[in-house]
């Protein structure tokens, strides 16, 4: 038995063409397309489970209150938004949206602003990666696409 690529059920699978895509699906999801073949269950292998270590994922994000930090430092340096935008090679309208908190800068832009203004805008965090089930992610195609009844 294996996981259906549409709904995620752990059942006997069939190979089916669903809207032009070949998928390994359960018989129930196979009715949304044309069943091509019945898949034979793979021989059961002896599982040697190793204790899984919690994997760490490094995530960069813009610090909260970034807009106020940028504005205060710009004003402290005696620069207008227009001048700072020119020095950063960015549009003044984008800088205005960032300073007003309407737009979060990309990590690349935040690092560029950090370097010019000599402030810290990007924080690096280590987070535990999402656990995987059977080597596959828990999200199935059925989770991503709402199935339309014909």
Structure description:
It is a single chain. The protein has 150 residues and is of the alpha+beta class. The chain folds into two domains: 2-44 and 136-144, no CATH class; 57-127, 434 Repressor (Amino-terminal Domain), CATH 1.10.260.40. Helix content is 31%, strand content 23%. It contains six helices and seven strands; from the N terminus they run ββββαββααααβα. It has helices at 27-30, 66-76, 81-88, 92-99, 107-117, 141-144; strands spanning 2-3, 10-11, 13-18, 21-26, 34-38, 56-62, 122-128. The protein has a three-stranded antiparallel β-sheet. A two-stranded antiparallel sheet has the order 1-2. A hairpin with a 6-residue loop joins strand 1 (2-3) and strand 2. The protein is elongated, with a radius of gyration of 25 Å. The two termini are 28 Å apart.
